[in-house]
């Protein structure tokens, strides 16, 4: 496909490429060779149990939308640093999240849909998965659609993912241990029964990355950790830093008690921390961040307020007393649990049964759900089994210290993102520059 800039700009060009460019760009032979470097059979282990982890093609996004997402992220990062904001959001957070934490939190994930008015922030995740997998996937792409003007967005355009990610963890160590006279020496990658996790291959890639940079690394269940002499241990390895992949964001489960005590005792650096989740990823925060009156009361300037009001779909905390109002508007709403992750217990209103709706409103759930204005995702048309199929897409910005490191897409069909769609999965993003970007 010969790509030329249309008169009406890069947004329309990206849309046209997403609709018309049918190329298969994933070099699976290269991907196999790269993954086999980890250990013989690793490629088969990854792909056979996860056939829809990686899409065969890529996604095009206009430079204008890349810039708009970055502006929304910068606006939120500015607000989250304000004492007034933190006082409000920590007011409904678990007690452990109110403990001061020096770390910023690795792999914040800002997830967007491309709405008619531009990018719309759907949610923020505090331990977004897929960063390392997408870094590998970027390198497994071939030139596609003669799109020579396209380029990688995020900091990957001028750096390697390995360098960015390792330096991020080292930065977390430095923030938490400013007086330490030694570098980061050991990392525990922690999740419940990690070998059973869908993204376990990513844990292996991180372990190898750390080891290549002289950092001991283990993958473990939190039950394998021990607290001794004021330090956290995995067997004979003293753990400097925990890369926390648990979805128990407040470390409340009894199975996570050792890690909880280690965090409270500052026996090891834990990132992302419970505070990171409370400040960024609690869905109730979005209701505050798109409330112009509240933003003004916090002292947020007019320009920043305008960016947030344009970039965040109207979001409200569910109030059981307004049940009939929500039911009457349900087709325009998406219901999400405040502490949700991975689209679990999230529902499009137009697919909602009265029974599930009543469950959302009942008991504690009435104070733990948000209702967000529905922003239909944009689409990527690909041939799957020789048949053109429109796959929904969302865009994940991996962010650290307010900077976008990498942008990746997820292609899927159904209510929410998943890795069960033929032709779907993670897909690299190529940014189409606008005229004024050269």
State the major sheet. Answer: 7 strands, mixed
Instruction: Please state the oligomeric state of the protein chains shown.
Output: single chain
Rg calc: 22 Å
Under CATH at level 1, the class of the largest domain stands as: Alpha Beta
Shape designation? globular
Count of beta strands = 18
Give the termini separation: 21 Å
Q: How many discrete structural domains? A: 2
Task: Tell me, rounded to a whole number, the average pLDDT.
Answer: 90
Q: Flag low-confidence runs.
A: 1-8, 146-150
Q: How many distinct helices? A: 15
Helical amount among residues, as a percent range?
25-40%
CATH topology of the largest domain: Rossmann fold
CATH homologous superfamily classification of the largest domain: Glutathione synthase, substrate-binding domain superfamily, eukaryotic
- The class by helix and strand makeup works out as alpha+beta
How large is the share of residues in beta strands?
Answer: 15-25%
CATH architecture tag of the largest domain: 3-Layer(aba) Sandwich
């Amino acid at each position: 496909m010969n790509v030329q800039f249309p008169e009406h700009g890069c947004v329309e060009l990206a849309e046209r490429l997403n609709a018309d460019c049918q190329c298969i760009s994933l070099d699976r032979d290269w991907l196999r060779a790269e993954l086999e470097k980890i250990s013989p059979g690793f490629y088969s282990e990854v792909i056979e149990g996860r056939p829809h982890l990686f899409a065969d093609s890529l996604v095009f996004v206009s430079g204008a939308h890349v810039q708009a997402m970055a502006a929304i992220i910068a606006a939120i990062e500015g607000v989250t640093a304000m004492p007034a904001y933190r006082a409000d959001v920590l007011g409904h957070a678990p007690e452990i999240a109110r403990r001061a934490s020096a770390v910023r939190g690795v792999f914040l994930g800002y997830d967007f849909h491309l709405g008619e008015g531009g990018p719309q922030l759907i949610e923020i995740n505090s331990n977004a998965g897929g960063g390392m997998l997408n870094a590998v996937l970027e390198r497994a792409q071939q030139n596609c659609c003669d799109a020579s003007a396209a380029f990688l967005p995020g900091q990957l355009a001028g750096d390697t993912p390995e360098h960015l990610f390792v330096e991020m963890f080292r930065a977390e160590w430095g923030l938490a241990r400013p007086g330490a006279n030694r570098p980061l020496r050991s990392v525990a990658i922690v999740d419940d029964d990690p070998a059973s996790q869908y993204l376990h291959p990513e844990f292996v890639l991180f372990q190898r990355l750390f080891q290549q940079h002289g950092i001991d690394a283990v993958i473990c269940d939190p039950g394998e950790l021990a607290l001794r002499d004021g330090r956290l241990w995995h067997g004979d390895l003293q753990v400097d830093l925990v890369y926390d992949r648990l979805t128990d964001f407040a470390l409340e489960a009894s199975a996570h008690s050792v890690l909880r005590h280690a965090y409270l005792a500052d026996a090891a650096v834990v990132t992302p921390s419970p505070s990171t989740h409370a400040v960024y990823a609690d869905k109730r925060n979005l209701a505050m961040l798109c409330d112009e009156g509240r933003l003004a009361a916090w002292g947020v300037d007019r320009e920043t307020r305008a960016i947030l009001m344009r970039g965040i779909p109207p979001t409200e905390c569910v109030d059981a007393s307004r049940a009939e109002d929500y039911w009457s508007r349900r087709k325009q709403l998406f219901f999400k649990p405040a502490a949700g992750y991975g689209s679990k217990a999230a529902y499009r209103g137009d697919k909602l049964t009265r029974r599930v709706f009543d469950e959302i409103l009942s008991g504690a759930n009435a104070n733990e759900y948000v209702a967000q204005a529905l922003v239909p995702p944009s689409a990527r048309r690909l041939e799957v089994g020789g048949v053109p199929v429109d796959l929904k897409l969302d865009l994940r910005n991996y962010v650290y210290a307010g900077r976008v490191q990498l942008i990746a897409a997820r292609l899927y069909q159904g209510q929410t993102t998943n890795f069960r769609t033929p032709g779907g999965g993670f897909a690299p993003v190529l940014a189409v520059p606008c005229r004024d970007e050269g």
